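Q: What structure does this chain adopt?
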Amino acid sequence: MIPFLSFEYQHKAIRDEAMQVFQQFFDSQYYVLGPQTTKFEEKYSQLSQVKHCIGISNGLDALQIALRVLGVGPGDEVIVPSNTYIASALAVSYVGAKPVFVEPRTDTYNLSPEELEDAITQQTKAIMPVHLYGQACEMDAIMDMSKKFGLAVVEDNAQAHLAEWNGKVTGSFGDLNATSFYPSKNLGALGEAGAITTDNDDLAHACKVMRNYGSQKRYYNEVKGFNARIDELQAGLLMVKMKYLASWTAERQMLAKLYTEMLQDVGDLILPVTATGASHVYHLFVVRTDHRDKLQEFLSEHGIGTIIHYPISPHLQNAYADLGHKKGDFPIAEMLAETSLSLPLYPGLTEEKVGIVIDTIKQYFTENG
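A:
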């Protein structure tokens, strides 16, 4: 059996340190916004090459707070990729604004800068590039577009910790940038957690106030805020995991290289492409094939787990029926939803097991043309 994802290897590596963190957390009697949060925010801001990190309860809250602090609200529009996970669009909806979907490139699956300008209207307030599957978006072109039209940029960096565009890490370009540390992420907590990153002192302060009931002094509330603070225990555990992130990322990249080399010219498979100037940290290794559903079933029958990211594009979800979109409105996103399959890839997955996945995929196409 080869699961799609396993934490066994990572947990074994950090177990002793994680137990120490829990004991310190338990004994410290600092459970919310304590010393672990402060240390985590300092460390993650350094990792992200920015001045500020604000620990948040989860990635969706981080996106929503970033948009609110930037003044996005009812009557505004925010551009998001048509093939993103629905959380990106939900954050826009939660602040009362309208998500405007823009198609990605067919090779990298990231937001196409060339498509941006046609989507910009008088109501557009912000652009939300999503570094999908772990590959950095073309941030220079996106930032140029934002400056041309006076738009804010909020990076959704949930899948791309340590990815770079022209040598600069994701999560350091936008006015405010949000990330998730959901357990399956490249840098994952052992529960829910997220963060906002920025170089702007005033925006950082506003985010800290917004996450804490709109208050910087207890019982004195400046704005209508949220209870959206990172958990002190999760902050401590993320500090432990950050020490391993670079080596775990290198392992992901090595396994992705093996997949790429050995799956060339197999059936009708379309393999991941990395844009010139971008790096890819392979949160997911996504292949495309017109045989997607049958291939997934075949792999499952041979004990290999896979997942579809994502089977329904946001514009076709019932949650967004009010926008009036129909099938065919965003054909690239729909094509990706119908043909994409994520293969097993995680730290601790052995080359031998990757070889089994590769051989089983080859067997399917040998038997099925």
